[in-house]
Amino acid sequence: MMAVRRTHIAFDLWICVCLFLFNHSHSFYLPGVAPEDFQKGDLLKVKVNKLTSIKTQLPYSYYSLPYCKPEKIVDSAENLGEVLRGDRIENSPYVFNMREPQMCKVACRITLTAKTAKEFKEKINDEYRVNMILDNLPLVVPITRLDQESSTVYQHGFRVGLRGQYAGTKEEKYFIHNHLAFTVRFHKDPQTETARIVGFEVKPFSYSVLIFPLVFAHICVIILVYSDEISVKHEYEGDWSDKTRLTTCDAHAKRAVTNSEAPQEVEDKQEIIFTYDVEFVESNVKWAYRWDTYLLMADDQIHWFSIVNSLMIVLFLSGMVAMIMLRTLYRDISKYNQLETQEEAQEETGWKLVHGDVFRPPTNSDLLCVYVGTGVQFFGMILITMLFAVLGFLSPSNRGGLMTAMLLLWVFMGIFAGYSSARLYKMFKGTEWKSITLRTAFMFPASVFAVFFVLNALIWGEKSSGAVPFGTMFALVVLWFGISVPLVFVGGYVGFKKPALEDPVKTNKIPRQIPEQAWYMNSVFSILIGGILPFGAVFIELFFILTSIWLHQFYYIFGFLFIVFAILIVTCAEITIVLCYFQLCSEDYLWWWRSYLTSGSSALYLFLYAAFYFFTKLEITKPVSGVLYFGYMLIVSYSFFVLTGTIGFYACFWFTRLIYSSVKID
Description:
This protein is of the alpha+beta class. Helices cover 47% and strands 14% of the residues. It has 2 domains: 100-127 and 138-290, no CATH class; 300-335 and 369-660, no CATH class. The chain starts with a helix and ends in a 6-residue tail after the last helix.
């Protein structure tokens, strides 16, 4: 009863901790970069980033289209994560002066050819968006949702253009967004009169230029478009020169672009003039909190409600499983310890009967050691990444920082992979520790790298900026061979030098025959059932993560993600222990691989859900994009299998050693 009471207290404490974390689950972040103060009139240089599309998932360089170019294109230095994300940050001809509004500023004038017109049309068809950066803040389009009062969401970048027909015609036309109305928000220091940039937007703007049906996905609807990415066919008198003044807008005459201007079509030999306005708006938002506007999304309440429901259900099931296990196991151990006579010993049934075989090394024990070591490496990487993110060290302003941190942590966690593999291998009476360490260092990374290489080749074939350059690929190989592999061998050497773990009971020389099992104890059925609960703990959060990755939405709620990760650990451990206990009670002692596969099978459900998400939420248009999606999700699912399988294995490993060391074995 004391043990049961302690469990009640522990469970209540666990709930209190989770509720506390929930109240602080937004997490916080450290800015990541030093603030820059601007005096009035200081030069502000806008940088351009990749063109992105949720329909193709293939990023392209900004200057892959014939946009306005500066005199010399300069690439910004990028970290490893930015390169892997396909970022291509470059300078641009868009230059502002701090707190000095501009109107109808001409960026450049171009004349389309048949080739460049086709390129623009292709990008408009695939709904590509242009991404820009000012003072390390991404350009966003704020959109007010009509179904929610005072609800604003932010979209990355602005669309290249639109498709549609003029009223009364059926011919489809392409229109380019050639006029940008920027809004720079700043917070001013009243003492020094300096200012810091806290927002970079293209504000919503209702315009009636396109008073015609707009066609999206072959569905003709009349909509009201909110955007300041205006398409306007600029006009001027006489021949073009640097001093030419436009008749459609004029800064000297204070004449801005109006709603009545004709849109700019994309056709061969069409002249396009790119212009922009700049407005400066003072804000009460301080520099340290400037990212809050982007990170606090309008679907906040739905997100929290779904996560809390999932969290409470999982906590309830986990607590119930823990209580059942404790009470059942406590009764079984007490009963077995009271068996003193030979007659009573002969009548005993259940998990004690297989004590002479339960620690018999499994088939393919070498492979199990490799997978367990790799799982430990993954667990260490995820745990430390989560802790750094929750503590605010992975700032959203540090683009690519999360991916860079995960890669470096994976490399340095290799020492724990080698140590774990070698310790388990030695317990299985293995002698070739170098062989097992080598497989640990190469098997998982090599398989992932092979898939990644094929996917990268496909991206190269599409001439996308998302293709990892040869230099970066070489850097990844150096990290793998130069740091990770040696660390795995260091860990393997240390682990194998330590004394082997001793089994709590002796193993019989002759394997015991396993009796015929009931249908519900079938290994495949049991393994598939075991993966449902761990997947249920994460699938709500998985939806938001997939949306963030594939629909290019902001995601920075690592507080909740950390809670979900903790719930995943507990769920994997408990469901594996429960099914392992039932397996041993049915006198089936082949638990080693089944314990790994039970919780690891949740990866199958993750991949199936990813497929469901692909067909229901995404509008992928290119076959190569579909291959990329399933290729990357295969890598993610494989990694999830290794992680959850290792958690379940170690939980079951601890459980079996505990119960067989707690009973009397004659």
